[in-house]
Amino acid sequence: MRKIRILIAKPGLDGHDRGAKFIARALQENGYEVIYTGIRQTPKQIALAAVQEDVDFVGLSLLSGAHNELFPKVVEELHNVGADDIIVFGGGVIPNSDIEFLKSKGIRAIFGPGTSIKTIVDFIENESKSRNSKIG
Amino acid sequence: MNQNQEIQKLVDGILNKQIRYIAKAISFIENSEYKIKKPFLKLIFPYTGKASIIGITGSPGAGKSTITDKLIKAFRNDNKSVAVLAIDPSSPFTKGALLGDRIRMQSHTTDPFVYIRSMASRGALGGLSQATKDAIKVLDAAGFDIIIVETVGVGQSEIDVVKVADCVVLIFAPGFGDEIQAMKAGVVEIADIYVINKADLDFAQKLFKEISDIANLSQKQPKPAVLKTIATNTFQESGIDLLKKEISNYLNFIKNSSNLAKKRQYFIESELIDTLSKAMIDKILSNQNIKSFFDKATIKKIYNKELNFYTVIDKIMEAI
User: What InterPro entries does the record tag this protein with (chain B) (predicted)?
Assistant: First the structure.
């Protein structure tokens, strides 16, 4: 059976990764293999790491306010390397009014402050069911 | 598409050095039973044996990932393509894993001649994961010049890396016990090169002397080199270029003597036994006649001493 792999990444100039590390650790506790790539990554670095690691999900965390710029760029870079099947979700300090825009750019879900881990795990489980790759 | 076509697509992708297929192939190996992946492994086997395989091992926090990062850079300066398998432990309780080695190496992610893959140990206890050997074959077939295998942080007896690496580099950092630790059997014995990292810290010189004594007593040919590094030092000489040189010298030495061939034959021998054990277990467990020998009722009878454990084993062996 395929083990679900998740990349947790922080794009752009934001050094505050307590939330990202917390999520990474919490997802490990729920049985997933989690790769954390550290702070200050470019969208291209994140997309290429996602491909090399063959992950099913990329979780982006950003507190700087540049999410409308950087989150869609990650989706775009994934598209450029033929990895549209990788599901992108995001979290951090993101105003409700931006969520619709981000979803229209291919970010499947946004989890704001106070989201329970169970909500994220349920999202991952539901999305995984609809993914069907026979090999790998 | 059927299974055979999918496998052929993977193989073609690997031989064309396509990163997506290389990555998919490693997942396929990690997630599949032996009999499912065997046809794939059979197809790539003829393309293996060209890469130089370097093992990086040492205790947690010694600096394995940081040294690996700097080694990638040093080999890239020589125009060599580099693949890395970085193994971190899986939780024995949740089966999850937090794979963090890549953080140190992220600057190489956009280099098309570098491939980095984090692997979870998935219950294997020898410092590698079950799938590491086969993942090496994929990277070898894809034509990488150098494959670096970074083990989980090891203690005293996780020595599986010696069954896959042409050159094993063992990394120490000051502060992990006295010289008696370095004299014990196990991990300390497997090194072809010793590195004292964090050489700017207290007691590094003392550790260097102790390890040099151990290296001098070694019966290995050539005697293991002992080096000092400060892997995080980007302003002055970090010692990594010297390490790269020692690794290259070592690889050349064993290539020109018959030692490399001997090593690789030893790898094959140990892998034959491993793979055969797995294949036999698969075969035995899928045999309907044998299954009845260890159903719940039988186990209960053994527990109640109505059946002798070893008689059951004898019966199973007869039925094969």
Answer: GTPase/Isobutyryl-CoA_mutase, GTPase_ArgK, P-loop_NTPase
